[in-house]
């Protein structure tokens, strides 16, 4: 029995040694710290190392390189130049501004001394600037243009192609002798009538008459061709500076405002004693 037990123990030891040897053959090799633990693949060829920043695009075949001209990057991206188109011509009237009618107002107080010929500045609390211009009353007779009697001349800017009406704020003076002190004559250079005929040129026999009332005092009076005329409008062929001549028709007459109106006072006299500029 002792012998049998010893044989059994020996057999167990042999089997244990065989199992230990088999497990040692299958154990992995020890790992060294920092070593790549991925097994090398024998089927794949090692790839070339890639340098940082190097273009990784596949190389172009030699045939395509031979037939293709390489252009600089700036030339490849630059668009083809476009033909310059001529400047667009503005449509008719595109740059033209609409003409705005402007009231022309002249105060006697604004006139220089040299504008007066045998007229005088007189003080007036009812006039703009505190002045009016007038002629001395002697009761004598004055003649219409082209006679050179007392007058005032000044320049204004007008617009062409529109009608104007002339108004004067007259001070009817004290009558004396044959003078009623209530008449003026007006002439304007470059003026034409409705038929485009030149009229009212200074120092000619063509003029407008400003006939005031007999009653003494201030009055807005229209410039008329004659008392019976229904069309005393004034026209100008183009926009320009013109000369206005206001001549005394009777001694003792005076005025403080001259208005050339294309709109506001074209049909009716100013209602206020002073027309604002």
Care to describe what's here?
- Residues 17-21, 23-76 and 83-97 have low confidence and may be disordered.
- This protein has 3 helices and 13 strands; from the N terminus they run αααβββββββββββββ.
- The protein has a domain at 104-261: Jelly Rolls.
- It is of the alpha+beta class and 277 residues long.
Largest sheet: 6 strands, antiparallel
Rg (C-alpha, Å)? 56 Å
Percent of residues in helices comes to: 10-25%
Please give the number of β-strands. Answer: 13
Q: How would you sum up the global shape?
A: elongated
CATH architecture identity of the domain at 104-261: Sandwich
What is the fourth-level CATH superfamily of the domain at 104-261? Answer: Galactose-binding domain-like
Global structural class:
alpha+beta
The overall average pLDDT, rounded, is 78
Instruction: Work out the strand percent.
Output: 15-25%
Give the SSE string.
HHHEEEEEEEEEEEEE
Task: State the end-to-end distance.
Answer: 152 Å
Number of DSSP helices? Answer: 3
CATH class of the domain at 104-261: Mainly Beta
Spans of at least 5 consecutive residues whose pLDDT stays below 50 are 17-21, 23-76, 83-97
CATH topology heading of the domain at 104-261: Jelly Rolls
Task: List descriptors.
single chain, 277 residues, alpha+beta, Jelly Rolls, 6-stranded antiparallel β-sheet, 5-stranded antiparallel β-sheet, elongated
Question: How do you describe this structure in short?
Answer:
The protein is of the alpha+beta class. Helices cover 13% and strands 24% of the residues.
């Amino acid at each position: 029995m002792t012998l049998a037990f010893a044989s059994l123990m020996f057999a167990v030891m042999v089997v244990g040694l065989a199992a230990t040897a088999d497990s040692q053959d299958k154990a992995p090799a020890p790992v060294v710290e920092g070593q790549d633990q991925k097994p090398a693949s024998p089927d794949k060829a090692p790839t070339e190392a890639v340098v940082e920043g190097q273009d990784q695009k596949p190389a172009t075949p030699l045939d395509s390189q031979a037939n293709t001209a390489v252009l600089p990057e700036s030339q490849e991206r630059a668009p083809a130049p476009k033909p310059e188109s001529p400047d667009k011509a503005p449509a008719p009237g595109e740059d033209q501004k609409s003409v705005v009618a402007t009231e022309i107002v002249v105060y006697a107080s604004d006139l220089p001394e040299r504008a007066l010929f045998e007229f005088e500045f007189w003080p007036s609390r009812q006039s703009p600037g505190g002045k009016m211009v007038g002629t001395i009353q002697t009761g004598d007779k004055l003649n219409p243009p082209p006679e050179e009697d007392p007058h005032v001349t000044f320049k204004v800017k007008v617009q062409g192609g529109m009608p104007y009406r002339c108004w004067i704020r007259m001070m009817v003076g004290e009558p004396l002798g044959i003078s009623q002190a209530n008449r003026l004559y007006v002439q304007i250079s470059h003026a034409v009538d409705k038929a485009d005929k030149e009229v009212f040129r200074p120092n000619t026999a063509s003029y407008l008459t400003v006939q005031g009332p007999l009653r003494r005092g201030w009055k807005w009076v229209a410039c008329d061709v004659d008392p019976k005329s229904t069309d005393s409008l004034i026209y100008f062929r183009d926009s320009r500076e013109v000369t206005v001549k206001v001549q005394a028709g009777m001694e003792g007459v005076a005025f403080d405002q001259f208005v050339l109106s294309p709109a506001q006072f074209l049909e009716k006299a100013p209602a206020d004693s002073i027309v604002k500029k």
